[in-house]
TrEMBL record:
One of its GO terms (molecular function) is zinc ion binding. CDD domains: ADA. This is Adenine deaminase. Zn(2+) binds at residues 14, 16, 194, 275. It comes from the Bacteria. Residues 9-324 form the Adenosine deaminase domain. It holds the Pfam family A_deaminase.
Length: 324
């Protein structure tokens, strides 16, 4: 089964590029840019990556991003991720970036987006990996800041396909961003949102009705609401589930308790993704392996995660055919 999973073509739809910052690159960039980091060795970093919930992770994740200063840093970060994709046979990836994490530190929007985009272009040319870029608003910040960010994205519409919503779910309801998502849709962006990771199933309902999302990031708490599950099955609304992330952030106690395979068998369009692989201990193949080891599945079921991800992706029908 390991060889089957390793060789299986994969499509990733839930990946925060800032969450691919491996400790080695963090140290290298800290040195290159003369930035202080609160760690003196990779062992110390590993010890710090012992999270008890989403917020305890976010605190460390935003701190790590401080080493990203120049366009080349964002290029190096993205290129390192694409090389890992190549190893894992990831053929297409749709990645999130958090512009506000960087503009708040005085790093221009253009620096971030241009560095990421240059690496994605090289990934297509040299590794044959296609990609899309999704800009996330930080939900702990206010609506005004989200509108400013949307304005900054205007010059980069050719590089950004959609907008998303991430950061602390509890206490920051979807309704806070209803107007900015409406404007983003008017401007031609697709929409996705994190919902039902730490927050209740009603947050998934709100993301669908208020933000008009075409897929839900995480969404695992839908199981608490059978009527919602029926609706998600009927509409084939994709859920971008991140198994290792959910264990690291204690959404489920252990992989055996994870509901992803149950959701698959209920007919939901669930996909497997890595979220923040440098922080959660695994890239795409590791996530597939962890699920398959805890939940015996047929090869057909495992491959269904890839078929679902192809369907759920933001590529054209013609491009979808290339991946099938
Ligand atoms: N949830 C919310 N915000 C995030 C995550 C996540 O899993 N990863 C990076 N930002
Ligand atoms: Zn996420």
């Amino acid at each position: 089964m390991n060889d089957f999973i390793q060789g299986l073509p994969k499509v990733e739809l839930h990946l925060h590029i800032e969450g691919t910052l491996e400790p080695e690159l963090m140290f290298e960039l800290a040195k290159r840019n003369n930035v202080d980091i609160p760690f003196s060795s990779t062992e110390e970093v590993s010890r710090a990556y012992n999270f008890h919930n989403l917020q305890s992770f976010l605190d460390i994740y935003y701190q790590g991003a401080n080493v990203l200063i120049n366009e080349q840093d964002f290029f190096d970060l993205t290129w390192a991720y694409l090389l890992r994709c190549h190893e894992d046979n990831v053929l297409h990836t749709e990645i999130f970036f958090d512009p506000q994490t960087h503009t708040a530190r005085g790093i221009p929007f253009d620096t971030t987006v241009n560095g990421i985009h240059r690496a994605l272009k090289k990934g297509a040319e040299e590794l044959g990996i296609s990609s899309k870029l999704i800009m996330c608003f930080l939900r702990h910040l206010d609506e005004e800041s989200a509108f400013e960010t949307l304005e900054q994205a205007n010059r980069h519409k050719d590089k950004i396909i959609g907008v998303g919503l991430d950061s602390a779910e509890v206490g920051n309801p979807a309704g806070k961003f209803e107007r900015v998502f409406k404007e983003a849709i008017n401007q031609g962006f697709l929409t996705v949102a994190h919902a039902g990771e730490e927050g209740p199933a009603s947050n998934i309902r709100d993301a669908l009705s208020l933000l008009k999302v075409t897929r839900v990031d995480h969404g695992v708490r839908c199981s608490d609401d059978p009527t919602l599950v029926e609706q998600l099955v009927a509409q084939q609304t994709p859920l971008t589930v991140c198994p290792l992330s959910n264990i690291k952030l204690k959404v489920f106690d252990k992989m055996e308790d994870h509901n992803i395979v149950h959701l698959l068998r209920q007919g939901l369009c669930v996909t497997i993704n890595s979220d923040d692989p440098a922080y959660f201990g695994g890239y795409m193949t590791d996530n597939f392996m962890a699920v398959a080891n805890a939940h015996p599945m047929s090869k057909k079921e495992i491959a269904q995660f890839t078929f679902n991800a192809i369907e759920a992706s933001f590529i054209s029908d013609k491009e979808k055919e290339r991946l099938k």
